Amino acid sequence: MTQTHQHEVIIVGAGGAGLMAALYASRGADTAVLSKLYPTRSHTGAAQGGIGAALGNLEPDKVEWHSFDTVKGSDYLGDQDAIDYMCAQAPEVVYELEHMGLPFSRTRDGKIAQRRFGGHTNNETKQPVLRSCYAADRTGHMILQTLYQNCIKNKVHFYDEFHVLDLLMNDGVANGVVAVELATGELHVFHAKSVVFATGGHGRIWELTSNAYAYTGDGVAITLRRGLPAQDLEFFQFHPTGILKLGILITEGVRGEGGVLINGKGERFMERYAPTVKDLASRDVVSRSIYLEIRDGNGIKGDRYVHLDMRPEVVNHYAELDGRTLPDGTPYRVTGEQLLSKVPDIVDFCRTYLGIDPIKEPMPIQPTAHYAMGGIPTNVHGQALSDAQGTIVPGLFAAGEVACVSVHGANRLGTNSLLDLVVFGKEAGKMAAEYAKSADYKPLENNPTDFTRQQLDRILGKSGGEKVVTLGEEMKTKMMDDVGVFRTAEGMASAIEKMRELRERYKNVSVDDHGKRFNTDLLNAWELGCLLDVALATAVSAHARPESRGAHAREDFPKRNDAEWLKHTLAWMDGDQVRLEYKPVTITKYEPKERVY
Amino acid sequence: MLVYLKIYRYNPEAGRNVPSFDTYNIEAEPTDRVLDLLEEIKGHIDGTVSFRRSCAHGVCGSDAMRINGRNMLACKALVKDVGTEITIEPILGLPVLKDMIVDMEPFFNSYKSLMPFLINEDVPADGKERLQSPEQRERFDDTTKCILCAACTTSCPVFWSDDQYVGPATIVNAHRFIFDSRDQAANKRLEILADHGGAFRCRTAFNCTEACPREIHVTQAIAEVKNAITSGGVEH
To answer: What interface predicted TM-score (ipTM) does this complex get?
Structure first.
């Protein structure tokens, strides 16, 4: 039996954006949060190095510098009004998190500690600036815990392990969702005035990723299926430092604390690619540099990886060469013990998965699929948009990685994802409650679960068909090879063809588990359907952009082309056809110029 | 290398209402995670094998299970460390719902009972951060690492036998606030933990400390809470 629930605001996803939205929405409206995981399992918890805010706790910093760095990091594809808004809000939300109880690491005088991060600079000296506010190397974990704790304090209503499979709309207005309750397998209809999607990203499209199993693009796929567009999907970030073969993230904070990238010849190669900030260039630049080193045979032992070295003697050697000083002017020097206290989880990951101690040995790393700059288009209020003219979808909001505001443009700076989800989660939550107060419940259509049932029944009705893992592996390999760090027209065309083939074969996918309770077999299959949809839309969006910008690097079009391509992509999906449109980038004070680090 | 796996199965819906084991022989690398083996089995051999997982690198807390009799995260247990004969069972003391999936509600309800949130309504006049020295911050650093995986609580013999006991994880999370210089409700938390079902139920078996995948000194944290209760509070 399908149960129907009614809440003024439904929030889908309980990571940082969803919980922040919940805290704000619940102040003004009857709010419930649906999450396919227990909230504290959300992927925000895996974020490590910090949240960016120009607090200037240790050295001079300015909101304007943070804004400019973000614009430059985005390769000028970020919307400058949205970026200005986010960076201006940053100090306030970081203080707000502290007031909520977040245990930030501290400076000697008791303030929030800050570290260097890629692409964040003092705009006058061009040198890296201490801007990333951190709690050791588990900042995301502390944000997630703190927000969840405050949701408990404020008695927010949660439906844990309810997996949302569809968005309900009536006459272009969002009015609810359909979810499966994992424990029973029953479908539930949630009738709402406002729906906030905070479902995270889709890094599981690629073979090597830092992303959780749960990062399957549900939000983007569901909205694509409901006829809404996805923005800038071709821009997906490969983080430079994933653990070899596993893809587990090694925070950029390691380089912020003085770690350096070293190739097979023992060279600190980033000084050739980014002479000013070197290892702290933005992520797209560093990932490409690593690929180029490997291509030139400069991988470690000629293999497909390089070293990230944070042994204290190495850190100190390069700090001396760079003339790096502490804020008080004394030379920057570290001990193994200090590094261990700054990045304890990194040390633990290396010991566990590599069997090495990074204080004594360098870490083998390779770029890993990390973050979706693209997603559901929204304005700065978190309101979802349905077209290139910025028409609002009434009742639908999105925030966090699933959304594309766009504050990250073609490449996100480290620390700006946590900032994004707090700032825009808050805004989306506020706006969702405000909208709910002025709107009526739009009636549900008859049989609201039909579309969901069709999708599940198609999978359950088959036996002996295609295996989920087989299709998934073929997708991941192809996307890694042809829609990865470097791209060509030919490769992307073949990826499009491959995704179409896989989507066709997916129609014949079958599962072993035909029960109702915790049927994770069935839901894995459903999630694969989401990944395939997003992968196809990504490949088509990428193929159509004949320039190199941020994370979208074309070997056949190595230059940025502002005259024709300084614009956002919008992709709609109809069957296996993807239709593209474009919309202008908002430029306020920073005219595009060449990007040099 | 060939790995022999013995996996706990229970699913009344499919007629498996008496727990039993299924066995599998699969090829594995010494550096494979036990979670990788479970995924291999689920993907290629038997899709009905059920377990929770998400991050796959020890930070989300989804996949606590009993591996060769000890509580671990499947994503942090490597074949080279657990051996080539591996028995996998659900964690103990919480109702099993299906295979390795247990009912987490009692666990989270216990966690919520100790007010797991900072209590301090005084915000600095300048709107900026409250000050806290690195030493004050260090005082509760260890217990901020908790990922609520339940490995500690479900390894505790007192928790198995006494359903009043809040369990180690709840005390760890209370510790995180009791020893935070910014919190103003330490005494209230200590009062609750002084009661029946609180910290003095702990018999220092140290199972929790051994089980913690985040290497939190759980037993020590509980001892600090006990000391704070007997000495009448906490000084920051």
So the answer is: 0.98
